[in-house]
Write a structure and sequence with these properties.
- There is one protein chain.
- 1% of the residues lie in helices and 49% in strands.
- The chain is mostly beta strands.
- It folds into two domains: 2-43 and 384-474, Sandwich (Jelly Rolls), CATH 2.60.120; 47-370, 7 Propeller (Methylamine Dehydrogenase, Chain H).
- The strands form eight sheets. Strands 1, 3, 4, 33, 36, 37 and 39 form a seven-stranded antiparallel β-sheet that branches.
- It starts with a strand and ends with a strand.
Length: 477
């Protein structure tokens, strides 16, 4: 008989699918609604609704967009399957800004902030009818471009690159990439026709690739335009039509859904069923820990995926089950620490970031600030963090837990140790940073698994990791 201590020095993210015994002790095999910043373990914050519920939310909600204006005002738009709504801060209500002729699909929608002349303008593409434009406030939505300028196309991917507007997603010409004239003089991005004075200021178009596979996304970096097709990635190089070159990126690629792609600095990250990848300016790579959620990602449904970057974190919302009405799994990726965390218990229609704050459009029709508040729209936040199976120094010995020791504040907190032969748990309120809290446990097995969870949504903050005291003895043969 011998006492043994297993110590977790800090808390990290979620790592799944690795061989038994190869997951570091401070990583979780499963966790939800926790924050492990600086190695601490906290219950994640909730969300705080900032506007009344969007009217008619029974109709399917599609997208959320916040438009910070140079005046300091922020316009909030919500797209429903049939209409665009704007929040009126004076009347404190949602107003019907525009009604669509056809219901919108989730993947046929894009917003882009531009200047036409000196006027701040929001472009709205949906792939069903020509681009719309809006100058914000209580102004009307109007049509962008014109047939005689060749800019009346129904497109849904919009990007600015070297001052020109690029567009794709034309259902009649799915592989076609359009670009506008170069702004200057009487030229604007609303004109996609040729300019008789110079090819290099003209608008135009080109078929991308040697097949008719549709373009599925556009993303502008500082020195190139990325063009996703069904199973290939291309990049457009050059700053004017005279030197445009479209070349394929020669890298194995798990094709992403464009709404699961997000720009962080000048790198494009995208989440697929094979993990998290990024484009580094030359080729596609998977992040060092990009496969940590591979078993989970192979099962989720990306059909309504949405994403956003906020600070040094990337957020991806997906359906954990294909039968889910809305995205019910929020995956958070910490770029600096290269680790994942998971959130459950909220329904996400869309995500967007504005002035360093992350906003969410929920399945209830709420526009809310994420990472604020203590609940998910009034529902308790159920949080837990669970280790992989621990076998101590050897899987040949039987372990019986004696106690777990945690340091921190909050609670009540439940500590559970799963054993192959017997499990035990204990519930306590934490005594504070200078008073370790002991959880008496009685579980047994050759392998043990430690699970820390809150009770009825209780808040907690653990520092200094955790210690597990075991009574270890050899099996009697």
């Amino acid at each position: 008989m011998a006492l043994q201590t297993i110590r977790l020095g800090s808390f990290a993210g979620v790592k799944q699918g690795a061989a038994a015994g190869s997951i570091p002790l401070n990583w979780a095999e499963d966790a939800q609604n926790v924050d492990t910043t600086e190695g601490r373990l906290k219950r994640a914050k909730g969300y705080r609704a900032i506007y009344p519920t969007v009217s008619g939310a029974a109709r399917k909600l599609r997208r959320l967009f916040l438009w910070p204006r140079s005046t300091g005002a922020v316009d909030c738009l919500v797209a429903r399957q049939d209409s665009l709504f704007r929040y009126d801060p004076i009347g404190e209500c949602w107003e019907d800004l525009y009604h669509y002729n056809d219901d919108m699909d989730t993947d046929t929608f894009d917003f882009l902030k531009v200047k036409i002349g000196s006027t701040e303008t929001l472009l709205i593409g949906n792939g069903l009818e020509p681009i719309l434009k809006w100058e914000g406030g209580d102004g009307y939505i109007t049509a962008f471009g014109a047939a005689e300028k060749l800019s009346d196309k129904a497109v849904n991917f919009l990007e600015l690159y070297f001052g020109r507007l690029f567009a794709a997603g034309d259902r009649e010409h799915p592989a076609r990439l359009y670009w506008s004239q170069a702004p200057g003089g009487t030229r604007t991005i609303e004109d996609w026709s040729a300019d008789e004075n110079s090819e290099n200021v003209s608008g135009g178009h080109v078929e991308v690739g040697i097949d008719s596979d549709p373009i599925t996304g556009l993303f502008a970096l500082s020195n190139q335009l990325l063009i996703f097709k069904k199973d290939k990635l291309y990049r457009l190089l050059g700053d004017r039509p005279g030197n445009y070159r479209i070349v394929p990126v020669e890298a194995p690629l798990a094709q992403p859904i464009h709404t699961a792609c997000v720009l962080y600095g000048d790198r494009l990250f995208f989440l697929t069923d094979k993990g998290l990848y990024f484009y580094d300016g030359q080729t596609v790579r998977r992040t060092a820990h990009g496969a940590d959620l591979a078993p989970l990602l192979r099962q989720v449904d990306f059909s309504s995926a949405v994403s956003a970057a906020c600070g040094d974190s990337l957020y991806f919302a997906v359906k954990e089950h294909s039968t889910s009405v809305h995205n019910d799994l929020l995956i958070e990726y910490d770029v600096l620490r290269d680790c994942f965390l998971l959130r459950r218990g909220l329904q996400v229609v869309d995500l967007t970031s504005c002035y360093g704050t992350l906003y969410v459009l929920t399945g209830k029709g709420e526009v809310a600030v994420l990472n604020e508040g203590t609940t998910y729209g009034g529902d308790p936040i159920q949080a837990y963090w669970e280790t992989p199976w621990l076998d101590g120094a050897s899987a040949l010995t039987v372990k019986q837990t004696v106690e777990a020791v945690l340091v921190g504040t909050g609670g009540p907190l439940r500590v559970l140790v799963l054993g192959e032969a017997r499990e035990g748990d204990s519930v306590h309120t934490l005594q504070g940073e200078n008073a370790p809290t002991e959880f008496q446990l009685r579980s047994m097995g050759r392998r043990l698994k430690l699970r820390i969870e809150n009770v009825n949504g209780s808040d907690f903050d653990l520092s200094g990791g955790a210690e597990l005291l075991l009574d270890e003895q050899r099996r009697v043969l």
